[in-house]
Design brief:
single chain; about 270 residues; alpha/beta; Rossmann fold; 6-stranded mixed beta sheet; 6-stranded parallel beta sheet; globular; binds NADP nicotinamide-adenine-dinucleotide phosphate
């Protein structure tokens, strides 16, 4: 039997176990997915210990995504994002990936969204970094807008230095102007999580926009309702969560992921 799992603190409310267990059942893989909750500064030790114990792969969540970089060989995108959320433990050293980043682009691709033109990323924390690097890698021009403008500037400068699309930085007050000719908007702030508020003025949304909200609790956020009312294409945060898990499954097993089974398991719990 193969063992996969999640390292985080806390992990008790994670949706990854049912999503991955559903994938094992659908593919007939003899595997289990378990959760580990090490002390807050022991992320790298946890990865090294899991490798010793024969665990095949790990997802990594808050607060360990940056810490585990020292215990893995990061893929180029994970290295640029500065965070790892998926580790393949069968290689030496373990390989680290950022599937939050590819979760953004694969969620958009699933909805037939062309990754062309300009993307506005609201937020410059972990999800914002993942989205900004992934969309720039897809050759989109990225405009980062963040409450703390200095964080947007730091992120945009790092994205701009790398391969792919150019990046600029703004504060949230510029959102209306930024969105006027944008093709994609990603909310990568926590605004809208468990409360009915949006980080973006409803009047700035329009029908030529695709709006991906990284927030998945609730699944239908105020931002997505406003976007739908404006005629925009909407992609909820569960799609991003799904595709980070899909990519982890594929990295670990080399098999095509049973996307529908994973999606059903995830949405049944949201
Ligand atoms: P984080 O690193 O703590 O970053 C939080 C971001 O939200 C920062 O840019 C912060 O701005 C901004 N923010 C917080 N409160 C705000 C407010 N009241 N007004 C404006 N901006 C505010 O968090 P994270 O890990 O990036 O997560 C952000 C969200 O994405 C969470 O809801 C998380 O659940 C979600 N997420 C979803 C997925 C998925 O698969 N769907 C994956 C990862 C994360 P400042 O820099 O100014 O503080």
């Amino acid at each position: 039997m193969q063992v996969y799992g999640l390292v985080g603190n806390p992990v008790e409310h994670s949706l990854s176990p049912p999503m991955h267990e559903a994938a094992y059942e659908a593919t007939g893989l003899d595997a289990r997915y378990v959760t580990f909750e090490p002390p807050e500064d022991e992320g790298a030790v946890a990865v090294e210990s899991a490798a010793t114990l024969g665990v095949c792969g790990l997802n990594v969540t808050i607060p360990f995504k940056e810490q585990v970089l020292s215990a893995v060989e990061p893929a180029p995108l994970a290295e640029r994002v500065g965070a790892v959320n998926t580790v393949d433990l069968r290689t030496d050293p373990p390989a680290g990936y950022n599937t939050d980043a590819t979760g953004v682009t694969r969620a958009l691709a699933h909805h037939g969204v062309a990754l062309e033109g300009t993307a506005v990323v609201v937020g410059a924390g972990g999800a914002g970094r993942a989205a900004a690097f992934a969309l720039a890698d897809a050759n989109m021009t990225v405009r980062v807008a963040n409450r703390t403008r200095s964080r947007a500037e730091e992120l945009a400068a790092a994205v701009d230095e790398g391969p792919g699309g150019a990046a600029t930085a703004d504060g949230l007050a510029s959102l209306r102007g930024l969105l006027a000719d944008a093709d994609v908007l990603v909310n990568a702030t926590s605004v809208g999580m468990d409360e009915d508020v949006s980080p973006v003025p409803a009047g700035a949304l329009h029908a030529d926009l695709t709006v991906l909200d990284a927030v998945y609790s609730p699944v239908e956020t105020r931002l997505l309702r406003d976007a739908a009312a404006a005629g925009a294409t909407t992609v909820d945060g569960a799609w991003m969560l799904l595709y980070q898990g899909v990519e982890a499954f594929e990295r670990w097993t080399g098999r095509e992921a049973p996307v529908d089974a994973m999606n059903d398991a995830l949405r049944a719990r949201l």
